[in-house]
Known about the structure:
Distance between the termini: 62 Å
Strand content: under 5%
Radius of gyration: 24 Å
Largest sheet: none
Number of helices: 2
Order of helices and strands: HH
Shape: rod-shaped
Amino acid sequence: MLTGAVTTHIVNHDPAVESWAAPTHRVIMGILALANWPADWRHLLQAPTPPPARTPHPTK
Length: 60
């Protein structure tokens, strides 16, 4: 969404005074996304594994 806002400001040749918010927010969101990115992102691509089957406890 912010990429579209930044592109619109660039295409419309808006002055820098009017178009500072979208690029600034985009940079802040990019920094936050990189800071919260998991160290090992490959586990995000794996299919979830089902929990192990439960074995019934024998009754006495």
